[in-house]
Amino acid sequence: MGDISLASTSNHGVQIGVNHGTINTEFHYLPERPETPPQPFASIPFCRDPDFVNREDILDQMDRRYSVPAGRVALVGLGGVGKSQLAIEFAHQIVEVYGNIWIFWIHAGKRARVEEGFRAIADINWLSNERNGRWIMILDSADDYEVFYGASEAGRDRPLAMYLPQSRNGSIIITTRDKDLASRLTGNRENLIEIGPMVQTDALTLLQKKLGLISDVGAVDLVEVLDCVLLAISQAAAYIQARAPRSSVENLMPEGT
Length: 257
Fold this sequence. Notes:
This is NB-ARC domain-containing protein. It comes from Cephalotrichum gorgonifer. The protein has 2 domains: 42-194, Rossmann fold, CATH 3.40.50; 200-252. The chain is 35% helix and 14% strand. It has 9 helices and 8 strands. The strands form 2 sheets. The chain has a 6-stranded parallel sheet, with helices on both faces. Helix 6 (200-211) runs parallel beside helix 8 (230-243). The chain starts with a strand and ends in a 5-residue tail after the last helix.
């Protein structure tokens, strides 16, 4: 047998002169580097509210449910009671305390927005890989049952609820007005936290944060007229600020109050 030369582009090769027997070759390749998981990122579309009033009992309940592997929790209540504000504050607190965590915020009022949110995550199966780290998905304003359990316009796609990930390294937080939808998405009514109006002391604190020093008597009367609803108090405070000094807590009250 004549000369044989085998070349390679991978920095190795074989060269043989005269050979009359069997040739055995063995190549040892460098092991591939393991893929580096991406750095966690918190996609929270809202800044922290500097006037946020700490409703500690609710945030504590959220933290307990979040801590359960594959946990799901829904904040349920009428519009304006502060469900989204609680979710925003909780998300920021989690990032502040734990740091390395993914947060995905999805506006869940319409099917198209939910689908857009899923596409932004790119690959929903990625969430099931524990190597990618801890994550929270927040479905905000999930008020329409048909968005999650109705058929798509084409009629071919599965209900969106079927695409919600279920993995030990992630949790889902839902804000909604619909208790039945919340129960179905979380799997159990025990995973619901009912959000009502603020207690009077919290309502007064919010009003004072918005307006500064105000008459105690006038403030109490105003928050009672507004049923201690967070959104109503915030809107009233904005109205007073925009028209100050012509407008005040006292002259905003209905006559005879």
